[in-house]
Amino acid sequence: MTPPDIRVEKGHAEPEEVAAITAILLARAAARPTAAPSHRGRDKAGWRRLERTPGFRAPHSWQD
Q: 0.70 cut: is pTM over it?
């Protein structure tokens, strides 16, 4: 017997509920996007990751 493709991690789902969510996931996977999103503007994020900033900032710095 093969293991199921979908597993309920917490709680209990009836077979009808599992079938419904499976149908939704398969329909979304089969759907094609109407148009490719066009990303305009900058390529980099407007925020910085804290682990990439230097450890020390001057006390008079405007950055928090």
A: no
